[in-house]
C-alpha cells in the first residue's frame, strides 16, 4: 500500500521493521494516537497485511516501503523517496534488527556483516538523514530500539549484544547533544520479548528464554511509546530488567560475562 499522506496533515511516524513484533505494535499504537505512518520492512506481504489492518481499524493514512535494510543504499533511498513526496517525518522509530546465535568463530561472516548494517549502520544513517530537518524545524522525536543486552557482553551472541550497546551509547550521547533543540531521543531496552526473534535467531532453547516469562510485544511497545512522548532518554521495560541493568554496573565484568554465557547456552 502506497497511500499519499498529504491529503490531511497529521504528524507522521516512520517505523522500520514494522511488519511484525514490537515494530508492528508500535505502528498500531501510533495509529491509535492519530499519526499517519510510513512503514518499512523487507517482508512485502506481511507489511501489506499490517498496513491494511492498521489503516482499516484506525482510519489513518499509511505508506509502505519494501526495503532490505541490510543493503547500504536503503536509508538514502527511503529518505529520497519521502523528500520527493514532500513528506515530513515527525517521529523516526529505528526498530529493525536481528540477531545471530553461536560461537563467533563458527558463525557466518556475511550474516554478521548484514546484522551490523541493519542494527547499527542503517540506524545511524537514517538518524543522520532525518535529524537535520528535525533540528532545523525545532521539533521531532527519535525512538531507537536497543535491548537489555546493551548493558553487558553477550557470549554466543557477541556481535548482536555489541550492536545493542552501540545503540544505547549513541542514543544517550545524541540526547545530550540535542538538549534545547526541541528534538528528543529515546532508547528502548526491552528484555526477552514474545516474538519470532528467538526462533529466527536459534536461541529459543537458551536458559534465559526458557526459564523466564517474557513480556509481550504490545506491552513493550506501549512502554516505549509513552517514554518517547514524555521525552525520556532510556526506558527499560520490566522491574527485573531494570534491576539487572543496575546490578551489572557494580559486578565484576568477567563475572557478568560468565553469567551471561551460562544463560545463553542451550542445554
UniProtKB/TrEMBL annotation:
It comes from the Bacteria. GO terms for cellular component: membrane. CDD domains: SDR_c. GO terms for molecular function: oxidoreductase activity. Transmembrane segments: none annotated. The keyword Transmembrane helix does not apply. SUPFAM superfamilies: NAD(P)-binding Rossmann-fold domains. Keywords: Oxidoreductase. Belongs to the short-chain dehydrogenases/reductases (SDR) family. This is SDR family oxidoreductase. It comes from Mojavia pulchra JT2-VF2. The lineage of its organism: Bacteria, Bacillati, Cyanobacteriota, Cyanophyceae, Nostocales.
